[in-house]
Please model this.
Amino acid sequence: MDGRTAMNSALTAAGITGRTRVYGILADPIYHVKAPEVMGALFAHHGVDGVLVPLHVKADGLAVVMDGLRHLRNFGGFIATVPHKTAMTDLCDALTREAEQIGAVNCVRREADGRMVGTMLDGIGFVEALRASGLEPRDRSAALAGAGGAASAIAFALAEAGVARLTILNRTADRARALVERLRTAYPTLPVAAEGAQAEHDLLVNGTSLGMRPQDASPFDLSALHGGQFVAEAIMDPETTPLLAAASAAGCRIQKGLPMLERQIALMARHMGAL
Ligand SMILES: NC(=O)c1ccc[n+]([C@@H]2O[C@H](COP(=O)([O-])OP(=O)(O)OC[C@H]3O[C@@H](n4cnc5c(N)ncnc54)[C@H](OP(=O)(O)O)[C@@H]3O)[C@@H](O)[C@H]2O)c1
Model:
């Protein structure tokens, strides 16, 4: 097989033709993203003639790339991830309520006229994954570690899902208090605090990056975990963090980080008009 024939059969194998709709994921760095494979499997499952490609864009080139994508007529939209989620709020033409509340965007739809509509699906994906694991967050008392991008999205989604009480625990106390204030404004009747005893909550969520590296401290006191609690992670790598291992050993039900992404992928495909 010569080079051109090999390339043609590779393209045919990937199912890409002149009619294929193009989607992207924008990140810096890009090598670690999982969305092309996961979205590719979803497209194949639903018979969608689309492909999602990795697009390595640095922060200083983001506005120029956005303008270029507005003119790409077979482009359906993109996933935005680190470090672009916050900057994207200013670059989109319209935002959903979730993106406005949270102040970040992780998925953008390109309308037929080139307008870009941003949404934030981290938190909704997390709550959908909880429900799929058999835990309905409504009326639960939840403690959330973290006040960064993922944690903020999870906090708003838990509030929207009707938790009875929400405690935000974060290393930088000012950031936790700022998140609490934003939650109070959006959900005035929800009891929400920036401190509280972990043992009094029946749902514990790690929305920090603590647990990605072996030397990390724990986001919760592992010795205070008890069997009546449900413990959920945002971290995907490692699959079983020290928190999840300790929670399992203490008899807690657990949820890993990957289902949060898997649930989001379908929501993202829908937002971009692919499903
Ligand atoms: N499963 C999914 O679909 C999904 C989606 C999005 C993100 N994630 C994961 O969620 C995690 C957080 O991501 P992010 O985008 O929210 O990051 P981020 O905005 O940078 O926030 C990081 C959070 O971790 C805390 N933190 C970091 N290092 C710490 C340390 N040494 N001690 C105490 N607290 C520390 C930060 O506290 P300070 O405020 O004090 O700095 C902050 O609350 C990452 O592991 C990411 O991969 C998963």
